[in-house]
Structures are given as structure tokens and as C-alpha cells.
Amino acid sequence: MNPSVERALTLDQKQGTQHIHCSADAILVDSGESIVEANQVFLDLHGYSHLEELAGKPLTAVIAEADGERIVDIRRCWLRGETVPSILEFQGLRKDGMLIDLEAFVTLLQGGSQPRFMTLVRDVGLRKMTERALRESEARLRTVVESLGEGLLITDLDDVVQFVNARLLALTGFAREEMKGRRAFELLLPPEEWVASLSRNERRSKGVAERYEARLLRKDGSCFWAEVNASPLCNPAGEIIGTMGAVSDISARKQDEERLKFQADVLSQVTEAIVAIDNERRVNYWNHGAEELYGFRFYEALNRPLRELIQDDWLAPNTLSEAALESPSVWRGENTHRNKRGQQVVVEASVRRLKDASGKPCGYLAVLRDISERRWAEEALSQKEEELRQAQKMEAVGKLAGGVAHDFNNLLTAIGGYSEMLLLDR
Questions:
Q1: Which of 11, 175, 325, 405 lies 20 to 30 angstroms, CA to CA, from 120?
Q2: Do residues 117 and 31 touch, judged by C-beta distance below 8 A?
Q3: Residue 160 and residue 69 share a domain
Q4: String of b and e for 37-60 (b: at least 16 CB within 10 Å)?
């Protein structure tokens, strides 16, 4: 080799060595098989004090066994002119045997009789730990989301589905790929509800959360009632990017509500008064029949003590009517109450003790029929019967008196005749 060229290469190598040792990054120089040079940052990273401990040793001395052959083979491919990655991730091996996560930027140095690879090494252990923790956290979060009892639907500002959990798929019958990328309102709502849905999305884009009930469509065309709790979805910068909706199937609740409404409608049509009270004798049900009987509207009677409405201590604690309910399942009897106008009302009552789900007494249910007119008619009839009996008695006395008078008259006639005969004999 030309002496001037050798001097230039020697000068470049000296300058390169100075640059390596002045760098704040860990740098390693190797021949592809063995270690040639390393700066103090690299030595500290791997737990060594002096370069002599590593110089001339195989490159695999600072690489984990699982990655050593791969890294060396990449260098061989490079020397053969093959295309190889210049940025690598692998685990380094410290002097004490500990493994460290590394990221390496490899460069092939040109010039000189021997090939040299310069590798800038960075410890990415913290990043790797953070990534692992993030992946584990995401996995846990996904597990929680997928196992929720509620359906979860995430859409963007155009209501395009971005995520849907297993529960919502089960509720709607769709596959995940059938929903993702489609507009949610087009899949889950009938066309007549689309305008209302777009209005809700517009409110959400302004940061408004809301809860509402809707009939959602299944894949097979059937419907189910759902309660949707929709909230704006924000990115880390706080910008609204879509909607997160929690969907609950309330079909059973709706059926219960409809059944209760039907029962309430039926009870409201019953002419008899139906009243329910709790253990404190406060009204918690008062049907139309009770309104007609006592004159108080439902909202006037609700939660008021029963005695204030009927002006009687009926079913009050320690009364005979209350005590009568302790043995039979149903108590029947008659009572006199007063209505809102203060008028007396005679009722025929059928009362049952109410119990809660645990079997504990929780109040009373009374069915009351107004028998005032019947009672008054019975009293009037009784009075007429009494008057008739009195009249019959007077008639009997009159007949008796007439008979006695007739008998006396006969006797007197006979006495008068005999008296006259006696006077004639004289």
C-alpha cells in the first residue's frame, strides 16, 4: 500500500477512535466476529471496567445466547453484499450475566485491510418494560371490556364503528367484521330513527353526554329494547374524536313495565276501591275506584296516612281490624268511614297482608266496595218492617178490643133482658 495512503488511514483511525471515546452513546467496533474497540459508555453498560477485558473476545461475549448467532450471521451477510437491516434489537449480555434490552445502529466502516463494523448501542430496557406493561395493560383492559355485561360500542364523529365488544355482538347477532367500518345507525336503527340519531351525534361532538332508550335492530331483523349511555370520546389532547356507548338490554324490564302498566290500567277500571298501604299505614296505591269512593285524587292520597283520608283508625296498630289479620290470610268485614266531604261511607272490605320477597310483612292490600245505599236501604226496610209490626200489633189489639166489646155487649144485653123480666114479675 502507498505509504501516504497508510498514513491517511492511520490518521482517520486515530480520529475515529477519539470520536468513539468522546461519544455520549455506547459504541462498539468489531470485525464481524470479534471485538476490536469499545468506549467507556459501552463498557459501563455491560459491567466492564477496562477495554482489555473485552478486546479480542468473540462478539457473542456481549450478546445473549439466544441472539448471538443471529447478529453474527447478519454481519456475514453484510460482508457478502446482501441487503440486511442496519437497525437491530437484541438482548445484550452483561459481565454479571444479566440480560439487557438493546437497540443497535450498525455501520460498515470503509477502508483498511480488515472490515470493521461500528455499532451505536442504546439501552431500551425502560422502553421495552413500558411497552410490555402497556401490552399487558391493554390485554387486561381488553379482557375486562370483552367480559363486560354491557355492550360497548365506539364510533368516530361520523358514527362509523371503530370497536365493538363481544357482548354487543351477542346482543345484535353481527360478526365483528360486519360492524367495523360501517355506520352504527344504519346497522342498528330503523330508517325512521336515523335523523334523531344524527342529532344525538351532533350533540356528542359538542361534548354532551346523554342516556336514552331505543329499539335496536338485530342482524335477523328482530328488535330489542336497549338503554344507551353515550359519552364523548376524547384523545389525549382532549379533542372529541367520537362516541363511546354502553348498551344494556332492557327488554325484560320493558316487558315488566308494560305488564305493570296493563295491570294498573285494569285496576284503574275496576269499580271497587283498591288501596295499598305500607307498615306505617301510608298509602302507596290508590286506584280510580278509591278516588270515586273517598273523593281524594291519587296524588292527594299518595304517601299520606290512611286515617287522614278515611277519618277512621281502621287498620291502625293494635286495633281489632289489624289484629284480625294476624291469623287468617284474608280479613273480610264492614266498616264506616268518611269521605273528603265528611259524609259517612259504609264499606265492605276484603283485606290481605302483603309480604316482601323475603317473606316479611310490608303492608296491606284492601279491596273496598261501597255498600252505603244497600245499608241505608236495609235500615229503611228494617224501619218499615218495625212500623209494619207495630201496625199489625195495633190492628190485633183493635180486633181484640172489638171482640171484647162485642162479648160485653152480648152479656149486657142478656143482663138487661133478665133485669126487665124480673121487674115484670113483680
A1: 11
A2: yes
A3: no
A4: bbbbbbbebbebeebeebeeeebb
Q: Are residues 107 and 161 in the same domain?
A: no
Q: What is the pLDDT of residues 54-110, one digit of tens each?
A: 999 999 999 999 999 999 999 999 988 899 888 999 999 999 999 999 999 998 886
Please list, in sequence order, all residues whose beta carbon lies within 8 angstroms of the beta carbon of residue 266, skipping any fewer than 6 positions away. Answer: none
Q: pLDDT for 251-297, tens place per residue?
A: 999 998 888 888 878 777 778 899 999 988 999 999 888 999 999 99
Strand partners, 364: 277, 353
Task: Count Cα atoms within 13 angstroms, Cβ side, for 344.
Answer: 9
In the numeric block, the cell 290512611 is attached to 306
What b/e string do you get for 189-223 counting C-beta neighbours within 10 Å, with b at 16 or more?
Answer: beeeeeeebeebbeebeeeeeeeeebebbeeeeee
Q: Tell the residue number behind the cell numbers 362509523, with chain if given.
A: 160
What's the one-letter identity of residue 285? Y
Q: How far is CA 108 from CA 15, 44, 114, 116, 309, in A?
A: 17, 24, 11, 6, 100
CA-to-CA dists, residue 35 to 25, 76, 119, 331, 353, angstroms: 17, 15, 11, 102, 94
How many domains are contained in the chain? 3
**Secondary structure element (H or E) that encloses residue 385, with its range:** helix 372-425
